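Sample entry (277 residues):
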Amino acid sequence: MSSYTRVALVTGANKGIGFAIARDLCREFPGDVVLTARDKERGRAAVQQLQAEGLSPRFHQLDIDDLQSIRALRDFLRKEYGGLNVLVNNAGIAFKTDDPTPFDIQAEMTLKTNFFATRNVCTELLPIVKPHGRVVNVSSSQGSQALENCSEDLQEKFRCETLTEEDLVDLMKKFVEDTKNEVHEREGWPNSAYGVSKLGVTVLSRILARRLEEKRKADRILLNACCPGWVKTDLGGAHASRTVEEGAETPVYLALLPPDATEPHGQLVRDKVVQNW
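Predicted structure, serialized as tokens:
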């Protein structure tokens, strides 16, 4: 078993923060780094860019919105590496503030990728994460802001320590439904589809970490959500205050927590500091 090379994988890694995370892992992770992207050409171009810097990532196509694509990646990791050591769930989307797309469509599309597809990646890949593995879900402080802007009833539900994954899925579906029926504000939701999607990612991370604690405690896998900050990317925009390199710092820190580390686990981390929830 131990003859396998260690492997770290980054989703949505052909540009932006994902690319910067892949680059740092190529430099610091003792093993192979798999850079994934939905678009093969863009993914391979990103790999070539890193190769030109003297780094040697591998490429594998991954469209997180496509379950078959996730499963093909899982099978590749099993066959080539016997599993996975580090998973960084970075892939995500956001609509620009001035986008004319109706809010309910924005809500449906944003949650489809940022929450439901990220959850699918976790469902398929967490079982093959090896002992002392590290899982990092790139979330956002906008998720925490969205929580603050929820009704007290919803805040209570999201903060509940016994909230199940199924309960969370139902809440995320309800948000999308409520936007379709134009009652989301009346039902206590904030006006940010991106914020709600990232709130979902943060809460999902807490639930999955709790489950790892119950089912695989001896494996000492650490799973966390993180906020990279407001970063100059296609998603963050040109006015953002951080470079992609700065945005990558916390996700990489969590991905490379030493084997004997016991925390953070199930937390939201920003600037390498656990945030109050």
